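Case study 2.
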Amino acid sequence: MTFLRNCGHLLMVATRAHARWEVQMSRTILGDRKRIFILCLLLVFVLLGGVAFADEVGEVLPDVLGGKKAYSPAFYNLDIFVASIFIGLAAGLITGCIGAGGGFIIAPALMSAGIKGILAVGTDLFHIFAKAIMGTVLHRKLGNVSVPLAVTFLVGAIGGATAGGAINRWLYEINPVLSDAFITGIYVLMLGGLGSYALGDFLKARKRLIADPGHDIDDAMELGNVATKLQAVKIPPMITFDQSLLPGGRSISAVFLVLSGFLVGFAAAIMGVGGGFLTFPIFVYTLGVSSMTTVGTDIFQIVFTAGYAAISQYAIYGFIFFTLAMGMLIGSLFGIQIGAMVTKVVPGITIRGFYAMAVLAGFVNRAFALPGKLSEMEVIGLSKGTTAVLDSIGVWAFFIVIGGFGVWVIGTFVRNLGKLRGNEVTS
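Prediction:
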């Protein structure tokens, strides 16, 4: 039971760390005119390219996006682009308001909209890479980057991303439905575990708050002495870090860094969530790296991990829908800012409740889609009518919860504009 709770806590820490990164990238991009100009140029390039592609071969495109053959999906129409903006906006609102990575809803949302799983993963990775490359200001963080730590970690991350991408493509070539079922199953496990922990965490926090209204909600939790045990294992070569914080610094075997990097790269390539999703909890809780060094090193590695996975494992094979990626990028940039401002006028316990609901909505969406995938592969016997009903329940439940949350956040933002402006003036 303690192990499961610790796993849930690690996943929650991971989503929150990724959310902090997303907020930072958003502020950096929207706060710089040059970056906004570059974003507009990229948008024009993708849309014009997509229109030209559609005019040239529009008649031969498959009806279902991401059919058996990849078709360099820069294809554009207004419905696709608007839908991608709303998906990015919803993810951004969750990230900014809840303070947890909204990326976990992107792949389920895209798959629910008819995008094949491998395209959803590749597109999400490219969207993260584009945000990272535009929003990262490395020279401000280089003082906190442990280059030996980052490079050793990247060796494993590149290996993991290669393996994850190869598995996704291999499954897709065998059967696109098998690929969808695999990605769906991964999301069911992750969102199920994270959602269960988040719901339990919310209920406990709410109970404490009712018993003691003045109680300060504290997320602190000790996860044992794993880092101490790993640092005590002296398998060469040893990588030294945190020299600026401790005399002589700390050290850990490169073997553990490479294995950790492999796990992060593999998860990024399989799920499309970006390398930063798991880096923070692994560095801090498992490897014993200081938070200061972790932040700088994470920003450094996510550019290379997400970039490598997106380009080498998906883009060159045609498994990235560039129009969707740009729409999601634009929507998420603005959604994150709105969501972050709403946190100033919403109680923390309310945010925890919405966090649990959003994660569980993603879980329900994928869990109800999985029987249909298994039935198509004849693993289980269900009628088409039954699988269609289950799939509809999952889709409607997901979009009602996520859509309702988005309307609530935007409504709260509009109603409190005066108060939020007052906070800005005060700060």
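Residues 2-426 form one domain.
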